[in-house]
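quick one, 191 residues, struct below
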Amino acid sequence: MNSTKESGYSFGMLAIEVISIVFGVFLALAANEWRQQYNDQKKAEIAFEGIKNEMNSNKEFIEKRLPYYRAMRDTIKIILSQKGRDVGFNEVEIPGFHGINPPLLRDSALQTAISTQAFANFDFRLANKISLVYSFQENYIKWVDNYMNAFIGSESPKLRKVYSLFSEIAQVGEELAETYGQMAAINQFPR
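---
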């Protein structure tokens, strides 16, 4: 039987080799973890830029529609004061009316950030702010859809309901545009 001394190996050398291997594996794992964190951070930063761009686009879209909503609200208010509150929508001609023109707002950047798990790497406070804005947006869209369905579903809708629609769509749209603007003020992704 050969002992470690006879084969030229000592326990000290064996311990050094084992420690070297363990250290090398540990170093490789640490480097891989650092690389993964760097990649996750970059993915989150890109997702944040996409979300900001999408919010800016949605803000611009609403801001382009707001003058029409306000004009329709003001015009219909004048007609109601002249014709009475019970006048039907089909009984009058509304100058400048070319449909309700509901807002078409996107949320694809947020959905992509969530599905790629980039959103999971966001600071909680920032993720919460973004979620609140998109929740507001979603509620706004649902509210407009519900209002439109009630309007379309009625055989002879009253003009005052159309007035209410344009009043609310303008007021809440202004609030949503302001909320988008507050998010645009965040210039840098928090680290």
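The first helix runs from residue 11 to 83.
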